[in-house]
Design brief:
Blueprint: H1 2-13, E1 21-28, E2 31-37, E3 46-51, E4 57-58, E5 69-71, E6 83-88, E7 93-94, H2 100-103, E8 110-115, E9 121-127, E10 130-134, E11 140-142, H3 143-147, E12 152-158, E13 166-169, E14 172-175, E15 186-192, E16 209-210, E17 219-220, H4 224-230, E18 238-243, E19 249-252
Parallel strand pairs: 14-19
Antiparallel strand pairs: 1-2, 2-5, 3-4, 3-6, 6-7, 8-9, 9-19, 10-11, 12-15, 12-18, 13-14, 15-16, 16-17
Subunit structure: Interacts with HSPE; the interaction, inhibited by heparin, promotes the generation of activated factor X and activates coagulation in the presence of activated factor VII.
Subcellular location: Membrane
Pfam families: Interfer-bind, Tissue_fac
Length: 253
C-alpha cells in the first residue's frame, strides 16, 4: 500500500552508503585535483567546495559523479584563498584546507647550458614551467606569471675537485677560482618560493646537466654512463638561491 511505499523510499534515502575516505589534494603547477576512495558501485559522489567562511559551491562536473577525483583547477579562482571541500555521499567527508598559492607543487624546470668560447664562463638559461591556468586572452600562464618577484631558482652545482666558495649578487653566481678548461661542471635546478612554509618552498628537481669536459658534448642527467666518465668521483655540491631572468645565470670567475 501507499504507507509501505513511503517507508521503502525513506529507507533508501537514509541508507548508509560507504563514506569517502583518504580525501586529499593533488596540485602540480596549479592543476588541482581532489582525490578520494572508494570507487562507488550503486551510489555516487557530489563535491562541494568553498573559501573558508563563505557559501559552499558545486563543480558542475563533480555532481553525482562515479569517479573518485574532481578537477577544481578552474574553480579555485583566488589562488591565495584558503579552501575546504566536502565529498558527499552519506555521510560526507571533509578535506583538509588548501591554498593553491602556498600548496601547489612546482614541477621541474627546463634549462639550457652554454659555455663561453674561452671555456671560463657557463650560462644557464631557465624556462619557467607552465601552469594549468590561463589568462583573459586564453594564454597559458607560467609560474612566473603567478609568483612574479617571489619566484627564485635554487641551483646546485659542482665538480669532483671543487673547493671554491659561492657568492652571489642578483642572478650572478661566482666561484672562487677559475673554471678549469676540460673539466665538467654539473648543474641541477629547482623553483624556490621563500615565502612558503619550509616544507613547500622547493619545487621538483630538474634533470642534471653537465658542461663539456675533454671535448665531450653537453648531456642531460639521465645519461649516467657519461656522468661517471666525466666525474669519476662524487662531485661536491654548492647551493644558492637566486632570482631567475630570461638572460640566464652566469657561473664564472
Amino acid at each position: 500500500d501507499v504507507n509501505k511505499l513511503i517507508l521503502t523510499d525513506l529507507a533508501l534515502l537514509v541508507r548508509d552508503y560507504p563514506k569517502a575516505h583518504n580525501v586529499s589534494w593533488l596540485s602540480i603547477n596549479f592543476k588541482t585535483l581532489l582525490l578520494w576512495d572508494p570507487k562507488p558501485t550503486n551510489y555516487s559522489y557530489t563535491v562541494e567546495y568553498s573559501v573558508i567562511g563563505q557559501n559552499r559551491k558545486k563543480n558542475q562536473h563533480c555532481i553525482r559523479t562515479m569517479e573518485t577525483e574532481c578537477d577544481l583547477s578552474n574553480s579555485l579562482v583566488d589562488l591565495k584563498a584558503i579552501y575546504s571541500s566536502d565529498v558527499l555521499s552519506n555521510p560526507y567527508f571533509a578535506s583538509e584546507r588548501f591554498t593553491p598559492y602556498n600548496d601547489t607543487l612546482i614541477g621541474r624546470p627546463e634549462f639550457k647550458l652554454e659555455m663561453s668560447k674561452d671555456k671560463r664562463k657557463i650560462t644557464l638559461y631557465v624556462e619557467d614551467p607552465l601552469t594549468a591556468l590561463f589568462n583573459e586572452q586564453n594564454q597559458q600562464r607560467t609560474i612566473r606569471d603567478v609568483f612574479a618577484d617571489e619566484l627564485q631558482y635554487k641551483v646546485t652545482f659542482g665538480k669532483a675537485t671543487s673547493t671554491g666558495k659561492v657568492s652571489s649578487k642578483g642572478r650572478v653566481i661566482k666561484m672562487a677560482g677559475d673554471i678549469d678548461p676540460g673539466v665538467s661542471y654539473c648543474f641541477n635546478m629547482q623553483a624556490y618560493i621563500p615565502s612558503r612554509s619550509t616544507d613547500k618552498q622547493l619545487g621538483e628537481l630538474s634533470q642534471r646537466q653537465c658542461s663539456p669536459g675533454n671535448d665531450k658534448s653537453v648531456f642531460e642527467g639521465k645519461d649516467t654512463n657519461n656522468a661517471k666518465e666525466l666525474n669519476p668521483q662524487p662531485w661536491c655540491c654548492k647551493h644558492h638561491a637566486l632570482p631567475s631572468e630570461p638572460q640566464g645565470i652566469i657561473v664564472s670567475q
